[in-house]
Specification:
alpha+beta, Uridine Diphospho-n-acetylenolpyruvylglucosamine Reductase, domain 3, Alpha-Beta Plaits, GMP Synthetase, Chain A, domain 3, 5-stranded antiparallel sheet, binds flavin-adenine dinucleotide
Length: about 550
């Protein structure tokens, strides 16, 4: 049976790569929007012509049956999915490809692989869906390592058991979003964790990176959905007890959640699952003015209403996603529940919006009694754009457009000045680096913003940059923009990441953000479970590479 192969560069599968004619049509539409004029769409370098370093080590005989050494496996595990990764992949540059890719079938395989890595001084990089946007899976390792392998959990992706009484499920770390939701749906349950990378990312990757789902409030971070975790470290198994809560010292789960592969390979977890929602209500609300919009969102976030969606898009972001005409900020407001109607909640939230001068055309309601009414207009355009975005990005990269995001969070009392400083730093950096005029609506370059998650005490801001790049220099150009905005958002009191993790790319800012004593404590924990220092070296802590 032929297996469906992932693209060796960019997002998705080989059979989803648009044809040259489709690429051209997509590119012309984007070019018209950005006013780029005539464009040249670069074709990806075929795998046969890609540059891969010679492997430094080969699989030991006992593990050979679960190891892949071919060019496709090595290239497709060499990079994550950030903009700089997609550019390098398109051009066939896989400088740090793993020496081979191991695909363990069971924990015993993971143990054997880690034993071999420790004995040989070879770095072990846990790999879930490879959707890291921070260099988390790139085998860029210190010179002391004699090689580097990717440990791909794809063969360990089953839902092992469902406890319907406690509403929890034990799931293997390699389960992708669609795979685990498919199995849970047979029980009428859902994990209800939907990051934008849902299609390809995995439970293990979500836990390792403290991923954020697309719901705006309450249990949307994987942190809150984890009941217990199991990992294989070079020193043995780390398994916590299943408990709904515990005050017994620092949490062993929390230590693994966000560990980014530096402590061990997560192999399974018990996660909290829920009944599938049946009641929904949603509306797209318009307002003239981002700051006034943010004030209204704060009031909703502090009202105790807990919307499932409360995404504020600035006017340009709304236009970019087909959710607005470019004149108004748009709030995507939604509520859902498996248990009770949510009409009262959305009506209350809309009355808060009305008190701030917001307007909306209609409220879409779906409940057990009024069937499956599909969202239309701005709501469905936005959802469609959200799902399509990773695919579209490959086209933008092929057009030479710099297309990347950065995300952060800040408390409400600093929100306005933080937003203003970060946005103006981003626009200034984009203009200086690319030479393109950069505004919200005018010019060939755009920086837009949306609030992705809201809390009673603050919000997460997510910025998108679109700008014409100089062919061959795009990565340096993006790195310069990223450096400038990261310096500002850190100086203004924000975090270098709200949900994208640290990896290798965020190290310079994370190292300034986290307390030094915390880093020393984490180093101590790593030394206890990984004395040979083989687990994902260079990510999160230790000497940067
Ligand atoms: C288009 C796009 C949209 C995205 N949207 C979101 C979003 O909405 N929310 C969000 O939070 N993130 C998002 N991301 C970032 C990324 O998808 C997340 O970081 C995700 O959690 C990574 O999961 P993964 O399975 O792909 O992990 P990988 O990319 O394979 O790995 C990420 C890190 O986790 C470690 N790791 C992976 N599996 C294991 C394991 N079993 N044991 C130990 N360590 C492991 C790796 O070593 C690496 O350090 C997005 C990325 C892209 C490209």
């Amino acid at each position: 049976m032929s297996e469906r192969r992932r693209k060796h560069w960019g997002w998705g599968y080989e059979d989803e790569q648009p044809s040259p004619a489709q690429l051209r049509a997509q590119a012309e539409a984007i070019s018209g929007y950005l006013g780029l004029g005539s464009i040249d769409v670069e074709q990806p370098v075929p795998l046969e012509r890609a540059s891969l370093p010679a492997p430094r080590v080969t699989p030991p005989r006992a593990l050979a049956p679960i190891c892949l050494t071919d060019a496709h496996a090595r290239a497709s595990h060499a990079l994550g999915k950030s903009y700089r990764d997609v550019v390098r992949g398109l051009r066939g540059h896989f400088e740090h490809a793993p020496d081979f890719v191991a695909t363990p079938r069971e924990e015993r395989d993971v143990e054997s692989l880690l034993e071999w890595c420790c004995a040989e001084g070879v770095a072990a990089i846990p790999y879930g869906g490879g959707t890291s946007v921070v260099g988390g899976v790139e085998p860029r390792v210190p010179a002391r390592c004699n090689g580097a392998i990717s440990i791909d959990l794809r063969e360990m992706g089953a839902v092992l058991q469902v406890d319907e009484v406690s509403r929890a499920a034990e799931i293997q770390a390699g389960a992708s979003g669609p795979a685990l939701e498919r199995e849970l749906s047979e029980h009428g349950l859902t994990l209800r964790h939907f990051p934008q990378s849902f299609e390809l990312s995995t439970l293990g990757g979500w836990i390792a990176t403290r991923a954020g789902g697309h719901f705006a409030t309450l249990a949307t971070h994987i942190d809150d959905l984890v009941e217990s975790v199991r990992a294989i470290t070079p020193s043995g198994a780390w398994q916590s007890r299943r408990l709904p809560g515990s005050g017994a010292g620092p949490s062993p789960d929390r230590m693994l959640i966000g560990s980014e592969g530096i402590l061990g390979v997560l192999t399974s977890a018990w996660v909290r699952v829920q009944r599938r929602p049946t009641h929904r209500a949603q509306a797209a609300v318009r307002l003239d003015g981002w700051t006034r919009g943010a004030e209204c969102v704060r009031e909703i976030a502090q009202s105790g209403l807990h919307p499932s969606n409360c995404r504020l898009l600035d006017a340009a972001e709304a236009a970019l996603n087909g959710a607005g005409d470019g004149r108004n900020a748009t709030l995507m407001l939604g509520f859902e529940s498996f248990e009770h109607p949510v009409d009262a909640a959305i009506d209350r939230a809309l009355s808060i919006c009305a008190s701030h001068g917001w307007q909306w055309d209609s409220v879409q309601r779906r409940g057990a009694e009024n069937g499956d009414e599909r969202a239309g207009g701005a709501l469905s355009s936005w959802r469609e754009a959200f799902i399509r975005a990773p695919y579209l990005r490959d086209t933008l990269v092929a057009m030479g457009v710099i297309t990347e995001t950065f995300e952060t969070a800040i408390t409400w009392e600093r929100f306005s000045s933080f937003y203003a400083e970060t946005m103006s730093a981003a626009r200034r950096a984009v203009s200086e680096v690319t030479g393109a005029e950069c505004g919200s609506q005018r010019g060939q370059a755009r920086v837009t913003c949306r609030l992705t998650h809201v809390y009673p005490d603050g919000a997460a801001l997510y910025f998108t940059v679109l700008a014409p790049g100089r062919r061959g220099e795009e990565i340096e150009q993006w790195d310069e923009i990223k450096r400038a905005v990261s310096d500002v958002l850190l100086a203004e009191g924000g975090t270098i990441t709200h949900h994208h993790a640290v990896g290798r790319d965020h190290r310079p800012w994370y190292d300034r953000q986290r307390p030094d004593l915390f880093a020393a404590a984490l180093e101590g924990a790593k030394a206890a479970v990984d004395p040979a220092g083989v687990m994902n070296p260079g990510a999160l802590i230790g000497a940067p590479v």
